[in-house]
# Entry
Amino acid sequence: MTTAYEPNVVLSTKEYDVVGTRPIRHDGVDKVTGAAKYGADFYASNMLFAKVLRSPHAHARIKSIDTTDAESLEGVRAVVTSKDFGNLPWTYERDQVMASHKVLYKGHPIAGVAAINSHIADHAISLIKVEYECLASVATVHEAMKENAPILLDDLRTEDDLGNNSESNTNVAKHIQYSTGDIEKGFNQADLIVEREFNTATVHQGYIEPSNFTVNWNQDGRLHIWLSSQGPFEIRGDAAKVLGIPVSNVKVTPMEIGGGFGAKFSVFSSPIAALLSKKTGHPVKVVNTRTEEFESSTPTPGSYLKVKIGITKSGQITSGQAYLAYEAGAYPGSPVGGGANCLFAPYDIPNQLIDGYDVVVNKPKTGAYRAPGSPNAAFAIESIVDELAEKLGMDPLNLRLMNASKSGTRRSDGVKFPRIGCIEVIEAMKSHPHYSTPLKGPNQGRGIAIGYWMNGAGESSITLTVHPDGHINLVEGSADIGGSRASISMMAAEVLGIPAESVHPSVVDTDSVGYTSGTGGSSVTHKAGIVVYQAASDVKLQLLDRAASIWGTDSNSLEMNNGVISSTSNHNLKISFEDLAAQLNDTGGPIVGRAALTTRGPGGAFAGHIIDVEVDPETGKVAILRCTAFQDCGKAIHPSYVEGQMQGGTVQGIGWALNEEYFMNEDGSMANGTFLDYRMPLALDLPMIDTVIVEVANPDHPFGVRGVGEVSIAPPLPAVANAVYGATGIRMNRLPMTPASIANITK
Amino acid sequence: MKWIDFANPTTLDEAIRLLSEHGEKARVMAGGTDLIVQLRVSPERIGNADLVIDGKGIPELNEISFSKEEGLTLGASVPCYKIYQNPTIAETYPGLIDSASLIGGIQIQGRASIGGNLCNGTPSADSIPTLIAHNVVCKIVGPGGTREVDVEDFCTGPSRTILEPNELLVSLHFPAPPKGFGARYIRFIPRNEMDIAVAGVGASVQLDEKNSVIKSARVALASVGPTPILVNEATSALVGKSPEDESAISKAGQAAKSAATPINDMRGTVEYRKHLCDVLTRRALNAAITRAKGGTIDVH
Ligand SMILES: Cc1cc2nc3c(=O)[nH]c(=O)nc-3n(C[C@H](O)[C@H](O)[C@H](O)COP(=O)(O)OP(=O)(O)OC[C@H]3O[C@@H](n4cnc5c(N)ncnc54)[C@H](O)[C@@H]3O)c2cc1C
# Structure
C-alpha cells in the first residue's frame, strides 16, 4: 500500500499552540487591497522631485562639471554635485554617493537636480555638461588582477589578515586565508584528487520595488528620511556619516518594502536628496528607474573559484584547497569572506587551505544578496562532490552523509559548529519520494546539492503594551520583508497564551523604538524572537504581580497558562488575561513590557535541493521539471512564510544558474539593464516548488529558531548544473548556463 | 515636459488628412503597446512625434471578417485576443494563433494588434514570419488612394517600412487556406514568456490532395537580419518533395541557416542564431505538415 504523496511537509520536533500554525498575516489586508504604503507612495506638501546624473562611462576622470544651464531651466530649484559636501573629507562612502574626481562605473552618480516635477528634473540633468577623460576599465577579477591592470583607487593596497598592507597599487583590497590541518598530508592520504575551475557572472537581487527616498532637511538641522529599506538604523548611521551630522539629528521612517534580498542597506541617493533639500528648504523625493537600479545599486559579485578536493577510495574527504576571487565592485567589500566560510562548511574536512581575494572592478559596489558569497562557493564544491561520487561509484547523498558536518566539526574559519542539521537535511532528502522516483525520459537529469549559511543575530528592541480588551500592541524596528511581523506577533502570543490575532504589530521609525539592527543575515525571527520572548515574559510577570496585588497574595504562587492567571494554592483565585487587562488602569496603571538586547547564537542553516531537468538537445534550453527544497529551519514559527522563503530563494538560485548575468559591453557598461534582457525566471519557467521543512531546534533560541531567509538560494546553482550533467554528460563550470553554452555553441 | 496631442478620428479620410497635415510628427496608434513605450523611452526613434492618431475609432481598421471564399480580412487595429477568441479563425488559421497568443502575455494581447506588430517593423516581431508564411497582402491607404503590397515587401530595415508618412495600414488579407495547407510559428527564447525572440521561424506548406507531395512552401525568419527574411531556397528545397522526406526538411533548415544574417548581441551570437534557424525551421515545417494533414500539435 502506498500512501498519497503530500507536498510541503513539516518534519516538526516540537508542537506549540500558536507557533507552528498558519494565521493570516497582520499586514495581509493592506497588502492585498493596495492600502499598504510603500516608499514611492510617500508624498509631502511642497515636495520636489530629484533626478541623478550618472556616468555613461565605466571608468573616467571628471575634468569639469558645468551645471549652469540646468540651474537656469524653469522649474529647477537646485543642483548639487560632490562640491556640496563642503569641506568633508573624501571617503569611499561619500565618493560612492557622488563621484568627485573619477567615475568608477557606468551609473556612478555625478550630480543631482531637484525640480517641481520629475520631467523637468530629467530634462535638467541632460543639460549638465561633464567633460570626461576616459580610462581603460576592468570588468572581471581576471582583468583586475592582471599585472599592469588599470587601477581604480589610487590609495588602495592589499590588506592581509594581520592588517598588513602591500607596497604597491592594486585592485586587490584584501587577501584572507583560512588554514587547518596539513593540506599536503591530506592530499597524500587521498586516492583521488579532483581540481576544477569555476566562473560566475555578476547578478542582481531583482526586487520588484526600485529604491526610493524622500528627505527633508528641516530648518532646525534635523533630517527626516522616508524610504524603503532593510536597515533603517544602518541608514540613519550611514546618512549621518556621509553628511557629517550627528546621528541623533537623523530620523528614518521605514515604509513598506517591496523586496530587498540584501540590497536595500545602502544610503544610495538619500544624501543627494538631503543636500538638495538643504539647498531648497523643501522635502525632496528621488525614485530610481529599473535601469538605475541595475547600473548603480548593489548587485552580488561575479567570481572565479579554483577548488581541489582529495578523497579516499572509501569516500572520506581528506583535504580541501581553494582559491576564491570575488568582485567587490568599485569599492572594497565583496562577500568573499562569506564564500570562504561556506565553501567547505557542509563537510568535515580535516585539512584545509582557503585563499580569498576581494577585488575591485568597474561595476557598481556589490552588496548583500541572500547568503552573500555562499551560492558561488556552493556551485564549485557541490559540482566537485557530485563528480567525486560518480568517479567512486557512490550514491551522491551517501557520500555527503559520510562526510557531513555535525556538532563539534571545526569550520574553515576555526569556529566549532554548535548543534546543526546538516545530517538531518541529507537524510530527509534520501527518504523523500522525489529521490527514488525514476526519471521519465531521455535528455532528463536529476541533480542534488546542499549548502550552508552562517545566519546572523544582533540587536532588537521591542515594546508590548496591554490594551484594556486583552489585546497587545507590539512595537518593533525590523523592516518586514518576509512576514516577520506575523512571526514576532505569534511568539508574543505563544508566551501570553492569546491568539496571534490579538497582537497588533507596528514597525516604527528610528525615534520611536530602540536600536534594531537591519533585516539581514536571516536574523529577524531569531533576534526579535529572543527579545519578544523576554518582553512578553516581562508583561506576564507584571500581570502576575498585578493579580497578586489585587488578590493580596504572593505572586510566586500564581501562574499564567493559556491566557488565564490562577493561583496554585487557591482554586478560587482565577482571572482571564482579558478581564485583568480591563482593570489595569484602576489597579495601579498600564502595563508595558519591554526588552532590548544584542542577541547571539543564530544557529547556522543547511539546505538541500533535488532538481530534475530536461535539456532540449538541439537548443540547449533547460526545463525545470521538478524541484524539492529541504531546509533546517530550527522551528518554523509560521510555516507558510518559511516555505515562501525557501521557494523564493530557490527561484532566485535557479535564475542565477540558468539565465541571469550582467552582460557587459566592450566599453565596460552593462548592456542589459532592464527586466526584458536581465532574465529572471517567470511563472511559466518553473514548476511548483515543493518544500520539506526540517526542524533541528537551535538551542540558543527560546523556540529553536534558525534564520531561514537565505540558504535556499545556494544549492540550486550546483543542483541544476548536476542535473544538466545527468541529462547531457557535460559538466558546466560557468554561470549562467545559457542554452548556447549547454548546446556547446560558444562562439 | 512634452505635450502630446491625441486625435480620435472615425473615418479613414479624417485620419489621412491628419497624417498629411502633421507628416512625420504624427503616429497612428493601434494597441499602443509599442508606441506608448517608445513615446516615453525613445521618442527620437519615432521622430519625436507629438500627435497620436487612434485607429480604434475607424471601422476599416477594426474589421475582422472571414468567408471560405474570400479568406480573412484583419483590420490593422484588431487586438490579438479578438483573433484567438474567434472560433472560426482559431480553427482555420492555427498558424496565426501561434503568433497572436504568443505576443507579450494576456494583458498585452488585450491591446496589441498584428497590424501594429507589422508597422512597428522590428526584425524580432513575432507575427511577421507568420504573415509571410500565409501569403498575406497588406492594404495601405494614403492621400492618393489605396495600394496593395505583399507582406514580405513591407519591412525595409530595422523599424522601417514602405509606409509613407502620410499613409496608414488599413488591413491584412489572408487567402482562404485550401485543404492541405498548414502553418506554424515557433520562436526561441531562453525563458518561456515575456522575451524577444533570439530567432523565430514561420513556416507553411501546401500539400496535394493525397498529402503526398509538397506543392508549395514558405519559410520566413525573425530576429536574424535587419528585416524578417523570406527564405526562397527553403521553398526550392521542399517543392515537389514528399512531406515525409526528412532530407528535404533538413535542406530547408540548412537554407534558413544560410539565409540568416544575424548580429552578435546579448540575446545570442551569430553562430547560435544561425544554428537555431536550422533547428526551428525543421520543427516548424514538421508541425506545419502535421497541421496540413489535419492533425493537431502540442503547441507548448
Ligand atoms: C510587455 C510587452 C511584451 C511584448 N512582447 C512581445 C512579443 O512577445 N512579441 C512581439 O513581437 N512583440 C512584443 N511586444 C511588442 C508589441 O506588443 C507588439 O509589437 C504589438 O503587436 C504591437 O501592436 P500594437 O497594436 O500595440 O501597436 P502600436 O504600439 O499601437 O503601434 C506600433 C507601431 O505601428 C504604428 N502603427 C500602428 N498602427 C498603424 C497603422 N494602422 N498604420 C500605420 N502605422 C501604424 C505605430 O505608429 C507604431 O509605430 C511586447 C510589448 C510589451 C510592452
Remarks:
- The mean pLDDT of chain A is 96.
